[in-house]
UniProtKB/TrEMBL annotation:
Keywords: Glycosyltransferase, Transferase. It comes from Chitinophaga silvisoli. The keyword Glycosyltransferase applies. InterPro entries: Glyco_trans_9 (IPR002201), LPS_LOS_Heptosyltrfase (IPR051199). This is Glycosyltransferase family 9 protein.
Length: 377
């Protein structure tokens, strides 16, 4: 960990910092520890500029004070907002500085141009080439050619270059416990027995290339059902009818499309285990200290669960669905050459069973610790 507790003299007086992360929920959540470092070091107000999808989770990240929603044309979105309007809005906000977080395969210069045109005086980002006047502070981007860091570490290292530091590097989300009775009612209505153990299955993805085959899901559930005496709760945005029908003979119940983001966060916080592809819910699990098994498509290797009890199993992407981005392709070839644990139905069942049993010990320990704290009050 690169640690520098002395704030950069130019940034020391910043009281309003704009964080630019125009991606998905999981991307913004992985930037949260770095945002915490900015807030704690500079004692500043944090406004995040993010996409409409990223904005869904912004309210649940404690360090964020305000959110500006902008679907940028240089990020994959279903629609884009007016560029000139966002420039005017940012200029009127009079931010003291802007920090741009990116994946190593993304070009930061469109975002850098945006904050430059908005007149924000201090501008920080990674960049592969010299950005000259577009950024006042830049870190040469050596990923993935020299090394690959976890995304959380990458973002923390960026802000450490201006002296921003936090001792707490965990992902954290605010959990609304008042929603739990409503969620339990939905679970019961779906057919789940609330008195028996359950785990979350989240097959939903934002990109087709991360889809794990239906037949493999079914085989994994079949093996898990024979091993564990538990129920399975399906979550996601859109119902996968083929998967739901294929799992009819197993204790699988669906809340797909029935939960908003706040309910999903609360549900995950109560789960003993989450089994999911590499998408936003695995970072929600990390932020709520919930054990997670990831069925990980060989895409961005730096987006695994951060500092949580977890296991990652990998599967390949069909060639026709692989990225055309040459930086991503380079990282893919490096990952494909490694002996990574495969995501087979057998390995999923074995890993899930181990996590399930270990999670019970962990939750029992937490309950005992909390009880001891209460008895001493």
């Amino acid at each position: 960990m690169k640690e520098n507790t002395t704030p950069h003299r130019q940034w020391a007086g910043c009281k309003r910092i704009l964080v630019v992360r125009p991606d998905n929920m999981g991307d913004l959540l992985m930037s949260a520890p770095a945002i915490r470092a900015l807030k704690q070091t500079f004692d500043c107000e944090i406004t995040v500029l993010t996409s409409s999808r990223g904005a869904l989770i912004a309210d649940s990240i404690p360090e964020i004070d305000d959110t500006i929603v902008f679907d940028a044309p240089w990020v994959k979105t279903t629609s884009t907002d007016d560029y000139n309007e966002i420039i005017t809005l940012l200029r009127n906000e009079e931010f003291d500085g802007a920090v741009i977080f990116t994946v190593y395969s993304q070009n930061p210069l469109p975002s850098a141009m945006m904050v430059y045109q908005a007149g924000i005086p201090l501008r920080l980002a990674y960049c592969r080439e010299n950005p000259y006047g577009l950024l006042t502070h830049w870190e040469p981007d050596k990923e993935p050619y020299d090394y690959i860091r976890h995304q959380v570490r990458r973002d923390l290292d960026l802000v450490s270059s201006i002296g921003a530091f936090t001792a707490d590097e965990q992902l954290k989300l605010e959990v609304d416990e008042s929603l739990w009775p409503v969620i339990r009612t939905k679970m019961s209505a779906a057919g789940l027995d609330l008195e028996k153990p359950w785990i979350i299955l989240h097959p939903d993805v934002s990109e087709e290339k991360r889809l794990y085959p239906v037949a493999e899901w079914v085989a994994a559930v079949e093996k898990l059902s024979a091993t564990l005496n538990c129920q399975f709760l399906l979550t996601g945005l859109q119902p996968n009818e083929a998967l739901i029908q294929a799992l009819e003979s197993y204790p699988v119940y669906s809340l797909t499309g029935q939960l908003d983001i706040y309910e999903l966060i609360t549900l995950v916080s109560h789960a003993r285990l989450v089994i999911a592809v590499n998408t936003g819910i695995i970072h929600i699990a990390a932020a709520t200290d919930t054990s997670v098994l990831v069925i990980y498509a060989l895409t961005n290797p730096q987006h695994t669960p951060w500092n949580v009890h977890s296991k990652v199993l990998y599967f390949d992407i069909p060639e026709k669905l692989r990225s055309r981005n040459e930086v991503v392709r380079y990282a893919y070839h490096i990952s494909a050459q490694k002996m990574l644990p495969p995501a087979t139905p057998e390995s999923i069942a074995i890993s899930a069973a181990a996590l399930f049993e270990q999670a019970d010990v962990h939750s029992s320990s937490v309950r005992g610790h909390n009880a001891a704290l209460l008895s001493n009050q």
